[in-house]
């Protein structure tokens, strides 16, 4: 316990965003943690290592670094080019959304409509609304769903897609499964 405990009746004297913004920020936070979990799992899968060894390798690694390494490993391991193409598209989208996520969660809310970069960064201010933060959360959820497809084996994915039927592309997207296999090389 602190030597100076919070007094009864104490209220935050600083600005707090609206409940709608706080709820949307909660969604962004929750899905962000899940995305990082999937990035670790995909990294370990591509390395072919156990969770315990994987934790040593990626334990303190930032999400953007993991995405860069995952692509390098995938290319060196010569996984299906269609999977690599999808990962490149996915990570490009993630990079943009993750930057917005960082602004929403780590910058200073100056009003119910904008965040300001911390003083140790720039003097930039960016507008956000409950709707735009919820839209960001929805985009991150889509990234999470797409990433989860990469973590699964092709057989697990095919089984899941068979169960989902007409909504398979929504909840178990796998554009690399719908492409015809490459033709064998001529001899």
Overview features:
elongated, mainly alpha, 187 residues, single chain
Sheet with most strands: 3 strands, antiparallel
Q: From the structure provided, what is the oligomeric state, counting identical versus distinct chains? A: single chain
**Strand adjacency order, main sheet:** 1-2-3
Termini gap? 75 Å
**Roughly how many Å is the radius of gyration?**
21 Å
Domain count? 1
Q: What structural category arises from helix and sheet content?
A: mainly alpha
Using DSSP, what is the number of strands? 3
Content of β-strand: 5-15%
Number of contiguous helices: 7
Estimate percent helicity.
Answer: 55-70%
- SSE series: HHHHEEEHHH
Low-pLDDT sequence parts = none
Shape: elongated
Quick structural overview:
The protein is mainly alpha-helical and 187 residues long. It contains 7 helices and 3 strands.
Characterise the protein shown here.
- This protein is mainly α.
- The protein has one domain (19-173).
- The chain contains seven helices and three strands.
- Strands 1-2-3 form a three-stranded antiparallel β-sheet, covered by helices on one side.
- A hairpin with a 2-residue loop joins strand 1 and strand 2 (114-116).
- Helix 1 (19-47) runs parallel beside helix 5 (130-151), helix 3 (63-76) packs antiparallel against helix 4 (81-106) and helix 4 runs antiparallel to helix 5.
- The chain is elongated, with a radius of gyration of 21 Å.
């Amino acid at each position: 316990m602190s030597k100076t405990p919070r007094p009864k009746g104490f209220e935050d004297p600083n600005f707090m965003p609206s409940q709608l913004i706080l709820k949307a920020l909660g969604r962004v936070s929750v899905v962000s943690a899940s995305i990082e979990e999937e990035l670790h799992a995909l990294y370990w899968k591509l390395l072919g290592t156990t969770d315990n060894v994987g934790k040593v390798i990626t334990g303190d690694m930032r999400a953007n670094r993991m995405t860069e390494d995952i692509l390098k490993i995938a290319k060196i391991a010569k996984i299906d080019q269609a999977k690599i193409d999808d990962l490149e598209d996915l990570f490009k989208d993630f990079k943009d959304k993750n930057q917005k996520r960082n602004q929403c969660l780590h910058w200073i809310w100056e009003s119910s409509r904008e965040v300001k970069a911390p003083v140790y960064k720039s003097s930039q201010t960016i507008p956000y609304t409950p709707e735009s933060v919820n839209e960001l959360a929805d985009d991150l959820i889509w990234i999470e769903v797409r990433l989860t497809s990469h973590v699964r084996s092709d057989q697990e994915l095919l089984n899941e897609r068979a169960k989902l039927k007409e909504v398979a592309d929504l909840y178990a997207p796998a554009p690399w499964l719908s492409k015809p296999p490459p033709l064998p090389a001529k001899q």
